Structures are given as C-alpha cells and as structure tokens.
Amino acid sequence: HELEMLEQGVYFDGVEAYLPYVYRELASVTDYLAKGALVTVAEPRAVFDDTVRAYAEYETAAESVGQDAASYFVAPAKLDLGGRQRLTLLSILHTGALVDAELTSRRPDVAGGETKTVSGLKDLVEAGNTVLLLARDRRQRETLAASLCDAGLSIALYSGVSHVLPGSERDVPGGLTDRVVNLGVADIPAGYVVPEARLAVVSVDDAYPRSMRRSQASVDPTSLTFDFKPGDYVVHSTHGIALFREITRREVLGAERDYLLLEYAKGDRLYVPVEQLERVTKYVGPDQSAPRVTRLNTADWSRATGKARAAAKKLAFDLVDLYSRRSAATGYTFGNDTPWQLEMEAAFPYVETPDQLSAIADVKADMESDKPMDRLVCGDVGYGKTEVAIRAAFKATQDGKQVMVLCPTTILTQQHFTTFTDRFAQFPVTVEVLSRFRSKAQQDAALKGFNEGTVDIIIGTHRLLSRDVVPKDLGLVIVDEEQRFGVEHKEHLKNLREQVDVLTLSATPIPRTLQMALGGVRDMSVIDTPPPNRFPVQVHVGEFEADTVQGAIRRELARGGQIYYIFNRVMTIEQASERVRELVPEATIGVAHGQMTEHQLERAMEGFAAGQIDVLVATTIIESGIDNPHTNTLIIEDSERLGLAQLYQLKGRVGRSHVKAYAYFLFSRGKQLTEQAAERLTAIAELTELGSGIKVAMRDLEIRGAGSLLGAEQHGNMSAVGFDLYAQMLREAVSEARGEPELTVPDVRVDVPVKAFLPEEYVEAADERVRLYRRLAAASTTEAVDAIVADIVTRHGAMPEVALNLAGVARARALASTIGATNVAVVRNRVVVQPVSLDSDQRGRLAAFGAVYLERERKLQLPLGYGEPVMNGVLGALAAILEHTVEV
Questions:
Q1: Would the pTM of this model clear 0.85, i.e. be above it?
Q2: What average pLDDT does range 317-339 have in this prediction?
C-alpha cells in the first residue's frame, strides 16, 4: 500500500521507513503462528502504541493531499498480535503502578582476565545458576574448554538443539546441564544473568571484551589487501617476487586443478595451486617502478626477508611502546547502559545491521574498560557510522561526561548538529555547535557553556582544537573522517588519546591509520553490511558531452529527484552554473562553495534540502556527510582533477535511499589524462559494489605508491618485499612485541581425485577468478566458505559441479584445521586423515563407522560408501571425526 501511495506522489518524510518494518515484523509473527511455532511477542503494548502514533502521522499526511489513510493501511485496532503474547517489557520510567511482576537481570561479572573469568563462572555455578558460555566458533570453544578444564571447572559441550517444532524449521534450545559450565557456539554481543530464573548466559565478549582482542580477525583478509591479475608483479612469501603470467589448468594424480604460473628471473617457473593463494600477494612498492624479480632456490630472498623482518620488529617495538604508554594510562570507566540509553536506542527508526550492532558492542566494551578508547570504525558511506557515534555520545553524557564531535566541514557540522539534536530532544542532553552558520554571540555562548559544563555535547570543525576550548569534564572525542584533518590537528588528537576515549569514523581511512589498525596498534571495527534495500550507484566515466549532462538532469527531474553538479573551481563556478541553466532552462539552479558568506551558504543548502532547488552546482564542499535521500544523480565536471578518495566520497552523496542512483564522472574533451588520473577514474568505475570504501583506500595507496607510509627509513625494506608482505611481518612483530600468542592456522593439504576449479565460462574475468580463489584459500571456517559460496551464486548463478568440488575442498580444509589435521587424502577408496589423536572411547565410537586408527602414525582411515561421490565422502568422514572428537 505504501508503494502505491509513493507512486501517486504522496511522500511522508521520516515515517515511511518505520511503519513497513512494524508490519513486516507482524507478518513474520503470523507466518510462525501458522506453522504452529511458539512465538513470544516482546513489548506488544509498545508495538501497538508505536503503530498508533505512526498511523496518526499517516492520517495527517494523507489528509493534506486529499487521501484516506484507511484505504491503504490497517488501522491499529485491527492488528492481531496473536494469542501467545508472553512478555510485556516497559521502561522503568513509565511503569508507574502498572507492574504485574518484576524480573530483574544483570550483566555477568566475568571480565578482567582469565583468573577473574574463572572465579566469576565458579560463583555463578555455586549460586545454583544454569550457566551457558557462548563462543563465536568451534575453535574458540575448544580453546575455552581447555583453559576452563585446566582451571578445575567442570564443563559440558552444548549442541543447542533438542527438538524441532512441528511445521517449523527453527531449533529450540535444550539439554543444558546443571552444576557445570555449558559451552555452546553463538556470536552474541553481551550476556545476562536472571537470578529468579537461575539462568546465566555469558558471551565470550563479557569475559574477554572486544577491546582486549585483535579485532581484525573477523575481517575478510582479501578485502584488506591488493587484488592482482595476470601481468602483475606478485610476492610469494616463500619464493619471492615474480611475474604472474596466467592461470593454467593441470591434472596431477587424477585431480584437475587451477594453478598460478609465476615467472622468476632466468626463466624459472613456479606453479602455485589455488588452495595456497594466501601465500601470494600483489607487489606494491614505495614508488611505481617495476621491482627486481627473484631467482628461485637462491639465498637472495631469504636475505631480503630476514632484513625486512628485523626492521619490522624494530618498528613494531616503537609502535607498541606508544601503545603501551597509552594502555598504562587509566581512563574513565563508563557504567552499564541506563534505561534512558535503551530508550534512546529504541527510537532508532531503522533496523540495525549485524555489523552495526557489533561495532556498537565494541565501542561500549571499550568505554566500559578502564583504558582510554582509541577505536576506528570503518564503514562505507551511508552504512550507519553516525548511529554508532550517537550511541557512544549519549552513553558518555549518562555518566556526566562531555563530548566533542570533530567534523572536517562546516556543512557536515551543521548536519550532525541537526541529527544529534533531533535524537536527543526527549532527554536532558544539551547539544551545541560552533559553526559559521551561527552568530558570534551564539558561538561565544556555546563555548562558554561547554567550558563551564552546562553544554554536554559540542560539534564543530578544527575550531574545537583551539586553546580557548577548555571543557570542564571531557570524556569522549568523536572524529569524523580523520584523514581530512591536518598534521597539527592530528598531533593535538594524539595527545588527547592518552587522556580520553577517542572514536574515529572513516569510509576511506588513510593507509597509515588503516595499517596501524590492522597491526593491532589501534582497535578497528568494520561495518561491511549494507542497509536493506540499498542499491549500488550506477557509474558512467567519459568525456564531457552536453547531451549526456542534459539527459542525466532531465531523467532525474522526471522522477521528482534532485541533482548534485560538482565543479571545483570557485573563480568560474558561476559560468558552470550558467552552462547548466542553458542546458536545462526548466530547472532551478543553486550554487554553493566555501567562499560564500555564512548567510548565502546556509540559504543555498536549506533551499536544496527543502526541494526548492533542483540542481545544486557546488565545489567539493558537499563531499562529507551530506545526507539528502531525494538527490540521486551526481555529475562531476573535470573529475580527473580530484583524488580517488574524494571521488568515492562524492559518489556516496547519492544512492542513500531505496531509489537507484547514477554518478557521472566526466573529464575534458580531447584532454590527455595523466597515468594516475586514468587509473583513478578506472578504479572508481570498477569499485562500484556496496562496501568498497576500504578497497578504495587500498587502491589509492596502490596508485600513489607506499613511499611515505612508514617513513623514509623503511623505504628499502618495503621495496625489497612489497607492502603486503611487509605489513604481514609488521602485524606478526607487533603481536610478538605485545607478548600475544602466535595465531597460526595450520597449512592443510587436501588431495582428492576430483576436478575442482572455476571454469572460464562460469567466471569469465581472470582477475575475478583470482579474487575468488584467494577468498576460498583464506577461509578458515566452514561458515566463511558458505558465505563465499552464497556470494558466488548471487553474482554468477548456480555453481557447476567442478566449482562445487572446489568449495568442497575449501570446506575440507576448514574442517581438517578444526580437528588439527594437516593432511586429507583419498587412498584406495578410503579417506585418510592425519595427524589425529584419539583416546580409546573415541576410537570405539569411530570404529562403528568402519574406521581404522594407526596409533604410531596418528593416522585415521574411514571407508568411502559404495557409489558415494568422493567429495561427499570426504566431507562426511571429516564431519564424523569432528562430531566424535571435538564434540565429546
């Protein structure tokens, strides 16, 4: 119904995003009820009240255009929440005398190191609670099981499934054991203890907060390294620098696989199986010159890597020394979420994405620790980084602390001020802004209030780093797009990091910031999940054509939208505005640039936001943070003059709603582009998929070279081994310098006589095949493999048998790694797995499957079923071993 109304020109700002969510949730409840499932509706009264308010707003809006809301929407009184409403949750601030029963809950007190975790779990068990400790994956559960057993705790491994409801595919938990710690697998951000129910659910994040962990472990490593294709120089971690010639197919012992053909000096050749592609990275040096290719089987490469590794250790020591000084400082420990915090978060009009929830949990864990937070939240434009900042800022104010929000531009400052003010309007939180859109008297009053403590949150540009800004009780600094600030400002921020919590937001972080995060010196959370109903922006790169510009503007106007027209030269921007006016005389044209007076700029931006201006001709002043869902066409003139990160940020100004958006990157007719400009425009045309921000940062580094990234003294070391391998060495050295255990994934070899590759007719582009091979080679869990397979099917359609076999090999490697085995093979119709350590009980259970165990060689053999596909047999055998060893 809502879509029908939108098609008729009825648009309800701010409401349309919420009500469909309510109805969607109710529809899913109805589906579950139809299947006979047990459904608990949490807060049915709140759902009804929200729907009443939303419906009233629809009625008002519909009446203003002569429509009847009842013709399109179900009235709240007719909503059926089913007969299984089991729980009503009310804010403690609004209950009054309506409470029927009080069920108190609290967070488990298990954080503070292994000793504290063990004693906390013991206390929960001894208090008579049924305790469930949830790890993120099987491997982590094994590690927890070993450490808890060593500490003298009794444990039971919990499968999480007891039976399936009739007509439903949803599992219902069951089978928890009392007087022990039950260990299960589920990734939840926080646990809870309900004393009255004698139940304690503990997340691994309660015991070991994300701020104490290397947060990059959950990030797809191939998204943080450089893609490569035939013709590129690459680095093999064992054999050195080579030219990647081609992907070639070879059959070895009945198994047909793809290999990378690498050419070394003096005509040496190396064939690398695609399962080992995690050892191969692209060569990116300090400058763009071709590297010196290595000879195979010589000492040259070992000398180069030895020297680079020693240099990385020295650099790591310096970086960790800086980190240690910050860690040694004791920061403010924020308390748990207040009822107001929960109420404010519940007012968020959208559904949080999983990555958003994870980033929010990371930030809260940092704030609740006694160390100053220094976290980078990296997420694409429009992916919800601002909401993470809003929740962190509100949390700080709940403890009476003040917040500074630093923005790179005046326009973004004003927009954040509006957003924060709207979200906190119902609460006693004072938000002010230092902006040239405000009078001097207003700015002086805001500054005085912040210095005296009557202003809770102040938002501004680098003006906030001036000497006259002296907050009374600063607790949190939020930096939006840190790469836009100068060296002097970053030095000031570095000093702040040793005293207060700092949260940095970025879509395209500068490489040094990104590298420090990947190295573990700074904590990082990645928001990589696009909001629902978000489409990639359609990109056009080409010469400036008047017909192209005219057609793009008129198409957008025809569907009732607005247009950004970027022209980044203030001196002649009026001439550009006149050209647009001549091309599309029926459009209303506005102009915006940084040299306008405060009143002129504010009037232009407000007129555009209100829909009074069709085409805004502007400089890159609109590059950061401007959120106008009605603007879905972007035209950039002379785009070759702008940097890659700038182009990407500008592209992010469109496509911020459920409407398909278009971006035109135009360069001067007949102009000879520089090599770097051509590469930038090629990159912006290629990186069109949602969530490409980190890749843009890496590609920008690749185009410009990695020269000044780590300082002049590291130039030669990086040149010898390439950026990616040097970065890997630096990560390992940082872990060693911090005394962290080395996290090594065993190299697993899977020899199965099947054809396993991606056919050219299925994935045509060679560089895309390499990218997918790298992702599968880097996948360390079956869940990661399944996610990659789902992505491949979405992009390329149903997988042929040989591609399914390739995914099977990746799953086999992941399963074998979980078991601890390094070799899986099929020999004379038997699956052979080694090394495997089994006790007598485990041998007995596996013997029922026909297994034979050779104790001296730690080798296990399981027969393949008659006529069973080989790959299925291998995966079935590994699953059986896993079930009867790890699951005991």
A1: no
A2: 73
